[in-house]
Structures are given as C-alpha cells and as structure tokens.
Give the backbone structure.
Amino acid sequence: MLGHTTSAKAIAGASSTKGEHTVSLNTGNTKRQLKLGAVLMGVGGPGEHNTWLNPEIPGDASVDIRWYIERARQAEAAKFDLVFIVDSQFITPDSPNHYLNRLEPFTLLSALAVSTTHIGLVGTVTTSYNEPFHTARRFASLDLISGGRAGWNVVATGDGGTAGNFGLDEHYDYETRYGRALEHVRVAQGLWDSYEDDAFPRDKAAGVFFDPSRQHQLNHKGQYFSVVGPLNLQRSKQGQPVIFQAGDSEEGRDLGAEIGEGIFTHAPSLEAGQEFYRDIKARAAAKGRNPDHLLVTPGVTPIITDTDEEAREYEIAEHRAKDFSKTVAQFGRAFGWYDFSQHDLDDKFPDLGNLGDTSFRTQADRIKQTAAENNFTLRETVEHFNPVRHSPFAGTALTVANAIQQWFEGRALDGLNVHVSVPSEFARFNDEVLPILRERGVVRSEYEADTLRGNLGLPIPENRHTAARASELLSA
C-alpha cells in the first residue's frame, strides 16, 4: 500500500462551521473513502470524435434511455456514488457528437431514479437561463422521486450563443453570470425550506393533513430575482439536493467555495490537483465553511491494459486517429465558437482582442497568452493544447489503482468522475481496478446509506425555519 500523505495544515485546521445549520450525516462511516461518479457521455464528448464508431456503442446511445439505464445499473453494481449528466443548450455543427443529440437531464434522471436504488443522480442546470422557482421545483421533484438522491451541477453558462435561444441579443458578462448563479442557488435553497419536516401530519384520525405554521414564504427581492414562494413541495429525507459546481476562473472558484458541496474539475497532474485542492478548500474555510463538506472530484478517462506499454501505444493511436479539422473547429468554443477555419493554420495565431471575455474567459485568456508568449502559429497553438495525453490513470489495473491511491492520499482529490462511453472499458475499470482499491480500504464494499448525502458523507441541512425557532426557544 502506498504511504499516506496528510493535507496541508491550513486545511486540516480549518473546521469552522459558521453559517452552516446541519444535522447528522446519515451514515456511521467516518473513514475517508474515495468517492466515485460516472459521467455518461453516450456517443462521445469533447475530443471523442470517433467514439461512436465502437461496435459496443449504439449510434443513438445519447438518446436511448435503455443505454443510460444499463450504464447507471453498471455503476451502481460497482457501488459508485453518482451518475452525472452534463448539459448545455447551444450547439453548432462542430459540437461533439454527444452534444448534438442528447436527452434533457430532468427527464433522463427521473427515468434513472425508478431504475436504480442507491446511486446519486446529478444533472447540469444553468443559472443563466432558468428561473430559480423552476429549478427548485424540478430538483425537489427529482429528490422525492429518487428517495433523496438528487444533485445539481450549477453552471454559469459559457456558450454565448445560448442567449439567442432565450430571446436575448447578448450573453451575460462574467460579473452578471456569477452574480446570478450565487443568487439563483440561494433562492432555490430558500425555496427548498418552504416546508418544515413536520408540516404534514397527515393525521386521519384527527382530520389534520397540514400544519400551516410550518409553511413559509421566501419573499426574496434581490439584484437579479424576485421570488415570493413558498415552493409547493416538501423536503426529501436528505433535506436538500446536493450542490455541485465546476469552474476554474477566480469567479468560478469563489462560487464553488461559497455554495459547492462537490467540485467538478480537471487536474492535468498530481501537483496541479494538489494546488487546486488546497486553494478551493482554503477558500471554503475562509468563508466560514467546513472544508470537509466540499468534495473535489476531477474527471478522468481510465485506460486499463495488460501492460503499461500498451496504454501508451493506445493513447498515441487515439491521438493520431483524430480528425484535426474537427479539433480546430471545437477549439473555437472557448471564444464563443469562433471559426478558426478562416485562418491559415501556419500563420501566426490571430489577434482576437477581447473575444472570449463573455464565454470561457479563463480558458480563452490562457490560449491567447500562451500563443503570444511562444509566438505560436494557429496550428502550433491547437497542437499545444491538444497533445498526446499520457494519463496517469492509464496502464495495468495495478498501475491505475496505485495512481488513484497516490492522488487520493496526497490530497489532490476526494473522488473521481469516470467518463463512460464503451461499456467493456468501464467494466474493466470496475472489475480490475476497484477490487484492488477495495481491498486496500480506499473505496467502499457496500453503500452506507440510501441517499446521496449519506453516501458522500455530507450533512443534512437543517431547515432554516426549524433552526430559527429552536434558537429562539434557547434564548427565551
């Protein structure tokens, strides 16, 4: 077994719970264990141009509910914590295959809810182009349908073209996007507390169905939203859906530290993962939160082969098989799907000015800065950001298991989001890698709970109105 590496002192010592009203964890398991998510990508996401050609993948996998149900059950059998459905609401002809034709998250996750029993159900919903009341009601419904297994991946939409699908001429700027995101989440959380847990006695003998003193209006008036409430739905047994967030900009990291209970990210190296882990946990602690109530879970695509050399050869072959013209086309997404085909690949990277400022700004700025500092051509820039990727999670089952344990114990992550397309490749990870980690105590052997919060080891948020009344009684 690999040696244990402790977390930074600043993180380990930061355990303030200021502003957090919580009750029991819904689990007796206190040992830190690796959390596992399965990202269901159907016919292939970004950079996976040829995935759909695999004979194991139906050509309509991204819209076939049977494919999702089978993958969710496969993940549940391996004791994964959750399945994750990525979403966006704007496409171009150059969008990844999965993005071009895929099911809407709430409909999809509701079908999975009645086809599974323990695995969490997490979906992406934008705060930029939805109203908080709708978001709150839909997630609360999913939480009840699933028996407390819902999770919300909060995004401040980066694809500027989305504005045109919602009657707007311009996309929101960064400040507005992230301001709306924080307020949207806070409004939804307030609506989820509309009913206290004892609001419905349903006492037939006494003829009492409902206690109106346990129903509460929100009466929110903020910068971006005005919502009266109450929400017409009770809380589930996990209290509220779990909040996830993804974003690497300063605004994104601050939002994640403020509201995130799970953080979806990408870590190109152990050191980069550790830096992000320390930063996001420290930001959470600075906001008065317990950093242990925020789980960092980067996305990975494990490659399991008979030898480590085979994994390297596989990565090279996959890179060579990619259509470079499609890579160039998708490279424009960070800049609002800018069309790079209008430029000569061997000319200097074009001056794009402030293009990308209202899209994926952090990524766009990084590309522009790198190209300028190195005097790259367009071709060299695209190649620089799309190299042959030698993943640390590629090789024999033992190699991959050792790498996962090293990152986990080295505090580069709390869990992994495994990208799932080819069923046999996912099965190989479950059947060969997880048993090694399970024997070492890194991952669970059985579910600890039947809610997402319970299995993630996250506290149940106490209803704010119940907490306020208890506080008044104590001070009386």
